[in-house]
């Protein structure tokens, strides 16, 4: 039992690598994507929208397989870990852009109007007024999405990334005690998501107290 | 209908000419003109849905008029079939001429009271942080809120927030101040402290346009009163005269409704 | 050129059978999962401490453990205790478990979102607890709950792709099989993506419209 625990725990590294890389890259790529959704050029708006809709309407497993099994046909061969990070980053960018958009909408028109009435430029408005507020408003939502990413990262086992679920599968084969092994893996995911869950709740209540956001 | 200023000697500080604003089928403001002289206080009153706020928001292009000309000081923008739409820069330049106070305050909740007042000065006027802060503290003192400088807006009452908003607008030294129902979101006794600040501003010679439901303020403080209904002007003139003897039956109905309340 | 670009379309019919299985899996696990969610709300809000603890564990595991791992717990785990469900049954069990857990949260949130004043008004009107729930709280909560529950359905259709891992012959299983035969993985998975999008996009649009309609009187 302890041995199994140790064996599975080795996969934590890869699980966290995929999750945190995709989270950070997605959070960064989501910014320009959200900005494009508000572009004054219809073509750019439409392209950003198609990207987001397309990503969300196809299961992550399909994207993962397209990248890992499909791209080599187009001359791009990636090792499993790279394929997983690329796939989840591209998916995360779409979701993050939606989260930012939601945050902007939650701020309402008042902030925008006030900052343009005092003459702040659009860039200053984004930097000093909307940006800081959006990040505080969307913090909990981003943390929740991070938990989703952590769970999605289990899919990487299907293309051979040696993460928690992959290790658990191997251990189940070896010992024949699938129930204990996979339950253990499941509990690993629960424990790993705990900090994010707590963070999301804490940020949430602190924010509510400070800014009286309903 | 053009409404000229009573006092022909001083130059007009703000002029709105033939301003019209339509949304799809609905005409919110229908060909309204107004000329405001330096130091003049104009109240805009009328039933809700009259187009008062929309007209006011057209003056600093928070709403882009469908047609018409707005002039503040030396800056002028005309919207119409023969004019190309104004650039962001032109709109920003026009807005520099008018400070705006909103019904819902719209303070920046993530900044302290002091930063709310200082940040626009630094970014828009290029003042240094210490210069801006010094000016902000003086203005906060003027609106009676020196002690709240380091508080966040959520720790201020509605009346205090609105006074900060006034300080924020004044900090940019605008020649004209626009007030969009500044006390409508406040309890009467809290609204009074805001009105007191506004009265003082008027006494100091600030040019002000105020959309309001406060009839006492309109009567006592403003030099002129503009009565609007259904996007148009019913009448315009000395507030005491209008309130005593309205010429339009709709004004009379409106006045008796609000004054009986 | 056009042939190259549209080559993937020839695989779409090959995956139709998989689509049927995916829809069946989605439908069954939701038909079981929604009532399970309601049951879990009653249990976790109930008075029995034991049941409450059990309900909480079911909900937290169902939401917190990746669905893929839940599938493996059921399919590869149950044999350890001498149960050997088929792949399809395992998938239904895991999907129902997770769907139940998520609908619990949706139903609970919808009930909580009905303003307190509604309960007070019902009490003031002299309604019994039962009447209050049936005529006042439930209809309002249902309007709030239906759109997210339907979004859950869309999401579950997408999740059905995971059943590939335990050899349920759904879309991805068929696609992967085609890939191993033709080595044209790119086209095969584009065809799969097309099928998922073709079901998801119109359904999501429908939910959005329904949401607007239901929200009209709230």
Main traits of this protein?
heterotrimer; A: 214 residues; mainly alpha; MetI-like fold; 9 helices; 0% strand; C: 218 residues; 78% helix; flat
The percentage of residues in β strands of chain C lies in: under 5%
Radius of gyration of chain C: 21 Å
Which regions of chain C contain 5 or more consecutive residues with pLDDT less than 50?
none
**The CATH class of chain C:** Mainly Alpha
**Strand ordering within the main sheet of chain B:** 6-7-8-3-9-10
Mean pLDDT of chain C: 91
- How much of the polypeptide of chain B forms β-strand, as a percent range? 25-35%
Number of strands of chain C: 0
Contiguous helical run count of chain C: 9
Query: What is the total tally of β strands of chain B?
Result: 10
Overall pLDDT of chain B, averaged?
Answer: 91
Query: In terms of structural class, how would the helical and strand content of chain C be classed?
Result: mainly alpha
Largest interface: A-C, 43 and 39 residues
Helix and strand run of chain B:
EEEHEEHEHHHEHEHEEHH
| Oligomeric form | heterotrimer
Question: And the CATH topology of the domain at 1-81 and 216-261 in chain B?
Answer: Rossmann fold
Descriptive overview:
- The complex is a heterotrimer of chains A (214), B (261) and C (218).
- Chain A has helices spanning 2-9, 12-37, 42-57, 60-70, 80-107, 109-117, 122-152, 164-175, 178-211.
- Chain A is mostly helical and 214 residues long.
- Chain B has a domain at 1-81 and 216-261: Rossmann fold.
- In chain B, helix 5 packs parallel to helix 6.
- Chain B starts with 11 loop residues before the first strand and ends with a helix.
- The model of chain B has no long low-confidence stretch (mean pLDDT 91).
- Chain C has a single domain (2-217), classed as MetI-like fold.
- Chain C is 78% helix and 0% strand.
- Chain C contains nine helices and no strands.
- Chain C has helices at residues 2-6, 16-44, 49-64, 67-77, 87-113, 116-124, 129-159, 171-182, 185-214.
- Chains in contact: A-B, A-C.
- Chains A and C meet through helix 3, helix 4, helix 7, helix 8 and helix 9 of A and helix 3, helix 4, helix 8 and helix 9 of C.
């Amino acid at each position: 039992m302890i041995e199994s625990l140790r064996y599975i725990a080795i996969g934590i590294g890869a699980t966290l690598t995929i999750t945190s890389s995709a989270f950070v890259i997605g959070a960064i790529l989501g910014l320009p994507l959200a900005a494009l959704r508000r572009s004054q050029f219809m073509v750019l708006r439409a392209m950003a929208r198609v990207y987001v809709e397309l990503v969300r309407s196809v299961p992550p497993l399909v994207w993962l397989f397209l990248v890992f099994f499909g791209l080599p046909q187009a001359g791009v061969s990636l090792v499993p870990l790279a394929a997983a990070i690329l796939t989840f980053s591209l998916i995360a960018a779409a979701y993050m852009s939606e989260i930012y958009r939601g945050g902007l909408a939650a701020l309402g028109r008042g902030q925008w109007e006030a900052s343009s009435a005092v003459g702040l430029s659009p860039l200053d408005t984004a930097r000093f007024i909307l940006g800081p507020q959006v990040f505080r408003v969307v913090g909990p939502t981003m943390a929740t999405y991070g938990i989703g990413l952590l769970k999605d990262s289990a899919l990487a086992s299907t293309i051979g990334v040696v993460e928690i679920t992959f290790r658990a599968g191997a251990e189940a084969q070896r010992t024949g005690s699938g129930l204990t092994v996979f339950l253990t893996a499941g509990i690993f995911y629960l424990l790993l998501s705990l900090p994010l869950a707590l963070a999301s709740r804490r940020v949430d209540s602190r924010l509510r107290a400070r800014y009286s956001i309903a | 209908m053009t409404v000229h200023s009573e006092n022909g000697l001083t130059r007009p500080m703000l002029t709105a000419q033939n301003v019209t604003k339509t949304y799809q089928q609905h005409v919110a403001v229908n060909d309204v003109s107004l000329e405001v002289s330096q130091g003049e206080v104009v109240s805009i009153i009328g039933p809700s849905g009259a187009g008062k706020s929309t007209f006011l928001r057209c003056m600093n292009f928070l709403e882009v008029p469908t047609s018409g000309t707005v002039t503040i000081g030396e800056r002028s923008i005309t919207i119409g079939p023969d004019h190309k739409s104004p650039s962001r820069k032109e709109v920003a330049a026009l807005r520099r001429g008018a400070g705006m106070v909103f019904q819902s305050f719209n303070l920046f909740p993530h900044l302290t009271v002091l930063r709310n007042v200082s940040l626009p000065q630094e970014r828009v006027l290029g003042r240094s942080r210490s210069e801006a802060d010094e000016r902000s503290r003086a203005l906060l003192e003027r609106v009676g809120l020196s002690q709240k400088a380091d508080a966040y807006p959520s720790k201020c009452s509605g009346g205090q927030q609105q006074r900060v908003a006034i300080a924020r607008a004044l900090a940019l030294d605008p020649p004209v101040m626009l007030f969009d129902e500044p006390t409508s979101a406040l309890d009467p006794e809290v609204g009074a402290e805001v009105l007191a600040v506004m009265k003082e501003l008027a006494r100091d010679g600030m040019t002000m346009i105020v959309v309001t439901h406060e009839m006492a303020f309109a009567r006592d403080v403003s030099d002129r009163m503009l009565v609007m209904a259904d996007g148009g002007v019913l009448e315009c003139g000395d507030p005491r005269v209008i309130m005593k003897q309205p010429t339009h039956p709709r004004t009379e109905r409106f006045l008796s409704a609000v004054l009986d309340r | 050129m056009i042939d190259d670009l549209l080559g993937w379309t020839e695989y779409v019919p090959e995956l139709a059978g998989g689509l049927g299985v995916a829809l069946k899996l989605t439908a069954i696990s939701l038909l079981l999962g929604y009532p399970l969610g309601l049951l879990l709300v009653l249990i976790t809000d109930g008075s029995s401490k034991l049941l409450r603890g059990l309900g909480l564990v079911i909900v937290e595991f169902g939401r917190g453990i990746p669905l893929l791992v839940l599938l493996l717990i059921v399919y590869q785990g149950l044999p350890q205790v001498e149960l050997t469900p088929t792949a399809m049954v395992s998938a239904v069990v895991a999907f129902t478990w997770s769907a139940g857990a998520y609908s619990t949260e949706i139903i609970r949130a919808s009930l909580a979102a009905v303003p307190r004043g509604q309960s007070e008004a019902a009490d003031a009107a002299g309604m019994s607890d039962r009447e209050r729930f049936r005529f006042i709280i439930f209809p309002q909560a249902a309007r709030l709950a239906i759109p997210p529950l339907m979004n859950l359905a869309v999401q579950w259709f997408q999740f059905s792709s995971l059943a590939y891992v335990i050899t349920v012959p759904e879309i991805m299983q068929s696609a992967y099989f085609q890939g191993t035969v033709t080595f044209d993985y790119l086209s095969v998975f584009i065809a799969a993506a097309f099928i998922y999008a073709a079901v998801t996009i119109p359904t999501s649009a429908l939910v959005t419209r329904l949401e607007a309609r239901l929200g009209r009187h709230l």
